[in-house]
Write a structure and sequence with these properties.
Blueprint (H helix, E strand, L loop, with lengths): L2 H80 L6 H9 L14 H8 L7 H39 L2 H7 L4 H7 L7
Length: about 190
């Protein structure tokens, strides 16, 4: 073996090693960039879903609020009509038909935040946004629970009022300004 050829082989071997290491480093960098791109694509999909959830929640809240506000206006209008003395019975009955007897339960349909939490993808969202999303989700849960509780209490109050205030004595006392209605309701054969 000649000394000159060993040096050439060593240089060649070192060059090959450097090329392989560079190739591996480039491949790792490309793989990392590809993973980051995929992660960003997933994040963008979640952002779009969150925005759609926000739009849906906003529309739902506006619709439900409008229905509740509308019902409040109807109740005030009924009270104004009923408080007028000597109304014809048909007017009183017609006024009650305008009332909306439905209880509105607030129930959000969006679930992207739950999906983020259940899949562990919540870590893809920056911490400040993540904290706000979790806080919003908790607020929505509390709102739904309060709505369910309020409707339950309203149902109990309605039952109690029907039991307590549905008595002939209470009804007679509270329709004094409506003699025609009082006469019709309290005819002996219709007392119950």
């Amino acid at each position: 073996m000649e000394k000159n050829k060993i040096g050439k082989y060593l240089k060649y071997a070192i060059g090959e090693i450097v090329l392989v290491v560079l190739g591996i480093l480039i491949a790792l960098q490309l793989n990392n960039l590809n993973d980051e791109r995929k992660t960003e694509n997933v994040r963008q999909v979640y952002y779009k879903q969150l925005l759609q959830d926000f739009e849906n929640d906003k529309a739902y809240i506006e619709k439900t609020s409008l229905a509740i506000d509308s019902n409040m206006v109807k109740i005030r209008a009924f009270k104004d009509i009923y408080n007028q003395p000597n109304l014809p019975i048909i007017e009183i009955v017609s006024a009650t038909e305008n009332l909306d007897w439905q209880l509105y339960t607030v129930q959000f349909k969006s679930n992207t935040v739950n999906t983020l939490q259940n899949t562990g993808d919540i870590k893809l969202i920056p911490p400040t946004i993540r904290e706000q999303l979790i806080r919003l989700d908790k607020y929505k849960e509390e709102t739904e629970e309060a709505s369910e509780y309020n409707n339950g209490e309203a149902g109990k109050a309605g039952s109690m009022a029907a039991n307590r205030y549905g008595s002939p004595e209470f009804a007679y006392k509270n329709i004094q300004n409506q003699p025609k209605l009082r006469e019709r309701v309290f005819e002996e054969k219709k007392l119950n």
